[in-house]
Design brief:
By secondary structure, the protein is α/β, with parallel strands linked by helices. It has one domain: HUPs (Rossmann fold), CATH 3.40.50.620. Helix content is 47%, strand content 11%. The strands form two sheets. Strands 5-2-1-6-8-7 form a six-stranded mixed beta sheet, with helices on both faces. It is globular, with a radius of gyration of 19 Å.
């Protein structure tokens, strides 16, 4: 049985490429996304990529980047993109405006996929539980549409914060993997925004999607990640290169200068 093909609607063409190349914010984020893609072999021939759309600026920017690459190099790679959203309710509000997401996807020549399952209100009280539930639903959608990769919208701020969280609370040098094999190698997670700062993504999202609002997650109000984020803001007031240096440290680790036991190398 052949896996379903990406459902296409009349979408962007070369005019879309010309327009995006003339956007100053695009010129700021696109090269860094391409650097990440090439550094970690994120886009490969015959890839079928499920794009996780939460409805926030990160995921919408991710979708635009991959849609742009689909037009630019997708034909030579035989690349297919499947935007997907996991519905949920937080504080009586839906996670995202599904109609708006569908319109954005149609503009890009894509059809939005929706999970048949919905995230319950209670799952948002626990960050780990919420993450696991979302991931399971994305895995199910990827399998149903014959996708070999899932693209997630984690950015450079997420990478730096996770790096510090692991050091401070787990005693490990570990962070988010830009390319990660899961389910015994049957599926690969990719994070094309991993070199993009949150502030640049937000600027791009506001320009192209207007005001993007998603319900505040109740489980994140007093989280360790929020404490790390505030600490970095305070440090950056005295040295604006703090986060950039942390990103360089985690992506250019010199293991020969770390006291790692020989047996673990």
């Amino acid at each position: 049985m052949q896996p379903p093909t990406a459902a296409l609607t009349p979408g962007p063409s070369i005019t879309y490429i010309v327009y995006m190349n003339g956007d100053y914010l695009w010129k700021k984020i696109y090269p860094r996304a391409v650097k990440a893609e090439k550094s970690f072999s994120m886009l490969e021939p015959k890839d079928r990529i499920l794009v996780g759309l939460s409805g926030g600026g990160d995921s919408l920017t991710l979708l635009h980047l991959l849609a742009f690459q689909r037009i630019r190099i997708g034909r030579s790679l035989n690349l297919e993109i499947f935007p997907a959203h996991i519905p949920g309710i937080v504080g009586g509000r839906p996670l995202a405006d599904v109609e708006k997401l569908s319109d954005i996807c149609r503009h890009l020549g894509l059809e939005l996929l929706l999970s048949k399952n919905t995230l319950s209100e209670s799952v948002f009280q626990d960050c780990f539980r919420c993450s696991q539930a979302r991931r399971r639903m994305l895995f199910d959608l990827a399998e149903a549409h014959g996708c070999n990769k899932i693209a997630l919208g984690h950015n450079a701020d997420d990478l730096v914060e996770t790096f510090l969280l692991n050091i401070f609370y787990s005693g490990r040098l570990a962070a988010l993997c830009p390319r990660q094999s899961v389910l015994r190698g049957s599926l690969i997670l990719i994070r094309p925004l991993i070199y993009l700062w949150k502030s640049d993504i937000e600027d791009f999202a506001r320009r192209h999607f207007g005001r993007v609002s998603t319900p505040t997650c109740p489980g994140a109000k007093d989280s360790r990640r929020l404490a790390i984020r505030r600490w970095l803001v305070r440090l950056s007031r005295n040295n604006r290169h703090i986060k950039r240096n942390l990103l360089k440290a985690v992506t250019n680790t010199k293991f020969e200068y770390l006291p790692v036991p020989f047996q673990r190398l």
